[in-house]
Amino acid sequence: MSLARGDRPDVIAGARLSGTERTDPFLDEPVDVHLADGFIVDIAPAGALPRRGRVLDGAGGWLIPGLWDHHVHVVQWALAAQREPLGGATSAAHAAAIMAGSAPLADGRRVGTGFRDALWRDIPSLETLDAATGEVPTYLINADVHSVWLNTAALRREGFEPDGVGILREEPAFEISRRLNAVAPAVADPLVERMAQDAAARGVVGLVDLDMAWNEEAWARRLTAGFDALRVDFGIYPEFLDRAISEGLQTGDPARGGASDLARVGPLKVITDGSLGTRTAATSHAYPGDPHNHGLLTVDVATLVDLMTRATAAGIASAIHAIGDVANSHALDAFAATGAWGTIEHAQLVAHADIPRFARLGVGASVQPEHAIDDRDMTDAIWAEQTAQPYPLRSLADTGANLLFGSDAPVSALDPWAAMAAAVFRTRDGRGPWQSHQSVSAATALGASTSRGSADPDRIEPGARADLAVCAHDPLTASHEQLRGMAVAATLLQGRLTHLA
What we know:
Elements: E1 11-17, E2 31-36, E3 39-45, E4 55-57, E5 62-65, E6 67-72, H1 74-79, E7 84-85, H2 92-100, E8 110-115, H3 126-133, E9 138-142, E10 147-150, H4 152-157, E11 167-169, H5 171-181, H6 185-200, E12 204-209, H7 215-224, E13 231-236, H8 241-246, E14 263-271, H9 301-313, E15 318-322, H10 325-338, E16 342-346, E17 349-350, H11 355-361, E18 363-367, H12 369-374, H13 376-382, E19 389-390, H14 393-398, E20 403-405, H15 416-425, H16 442-448, E21 468-471, H17 480-484, E22 488-493, E23 496-500
Helix pairs in contact: 2-3, 9-10
């Protein structure tokens, strides 16, 4: 019997099990996994029990728990498919030239995304961008999303006076992104569906959506329209916290008005500092050549404590963006003061004394391993004088912190295999490993890529929810190349096929 996306197999036949903290006796022998009502009901040696009903041939592939991406900006990532990629731009002039050759979108604006200017030899300027792009409103979004470079036409369109540079940082940059992302559902939702299918093809069964919007209505609309590819936990930003509390939203609740329970209320998301690439992450030591620049704390401690206290009292978890070591210290202090539960997002530079506090306070480290590889040269140059540990994955894991891996898409691609490869091998593109003492084991990386994270990884066992994926290689023994190129033959969400190769 042939199967297709949307079908619910009764048996996954002839697969081999992989995963962390296994207690089964099967080692790498082929097994049959029997399913019913979206759950695993039995696991037996291949052929030992009758294969009744619809059979998915595991073909000797490796069955793993379904994967999660714990940090995605869904609409911004989906819209990246329409935007000009700038990751290869080697200078401001080069980026401007790329945009000059790009086609405007339907609304008449040119939008590019993914440039990294921290190590460019020339400095972005309004003159450079205007000379290349003329009167077409043109927007270049930094890879870290914390700054946007606009030409004069775009500045005027958005109500800003040209200042000779055209760079907006932090909140003004976020406002530009919010405006660019505010496209009609008829445009955005098909792109979100395409994004979800791409994610399912990588073995992803769920993600945390941290779009800067009131996300419940959007997800209820998508579910009603038939969205069924992923589980989604959606964030709430401070400007919407009072509304969420007054309407009784609590973390874990299904989105109201949705046709299924796949979308649920997630955490309060608070951005407390800037970023490495924009040189605004709050750090204890100054940035090179700028002795008065220690980055920005965009939310003071008293305000952060107030937000987290109100969220916690209302039953809402907290997800606190903290990149620099000062921001991480303040975020941990706020968790300690409020009794809040949740995560610190990014944790890219952490004081050595603060690393054990994650585990002691029960604060998850929601980290993006590919950022370490993307940022290795910037980190070595811009944070060379910092005494805190950059991207401390191994140190966090060794002290008992719960690691939860993500991409921060569109900052890096929504690809859990790339995240695992970066965490385990700390390299890409043939370069030597970077800060190899912070690499983690493959088991830790796989656990961190499941819904509950490395400290309590999802398992394949009777009674477990059938959120599963069949992949070509065992993630626990795969090489760097095999991880980054991992083929996924099938993905199941609650026993239903969301991807079938």
